[in-house]
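Question (not urgent): is this output format expected?
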Amino acid sequence: MRGGVRVFSYKGAPVFLHVSLLLVFFFYIAHQGVVDGIFAGLAFIVLMLVHEMGHAWFVRKFNHDLIDIRIYPIHGVCHYEHAEHRLPETLIIAGGLIAQAILLVFWSACMGLVLLLKLYSIHHMLQPVSNVFFAMNIIMLVLNSLPIPGLDGFELWQRFWGRLKTVLFRQQPGPDKKRQSNLESSKKVVDLAIKRAQKK
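Got this back:
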């Protein structure tokens, strides 16, 4: 990967961080100061990793070939291959959103426990991380769920709508189908009457 650094492997696939991720730290440092900015920048990268590893987890669960994971400043990519006769399962596409939701619930529970124990200094120290794992996480969840080409939501909504149309079509056949069914029934009645008349 050009401009990327391999940091570790996930389920046998290399994980690359692009050097342009330094821009994330510059952004947060400019808005929150050096210390808080570094924590927030690291939290953002973790959030991106969690999303892509959510895809990767389901890729391996369904026995597809996981190639690599690449993280950029505003998006990540999980590369994998699947057999030509097999389509990617819906859970692979939704895996990133599922992983983000799990992180959101987990971090909410952790911060709730911190407040319950009245550890206000720790809560304050983790505030930059919480801002990313809460607010930014929710924003990314909503955006990635939209039916916009290039986002997870686009494929998910297409599959959902296709499935919905299939169910509705089976339950409520269109006028042409009904007309054809009525014609076939009428034809059977006429044929039966002719056969009875011939026997007499």
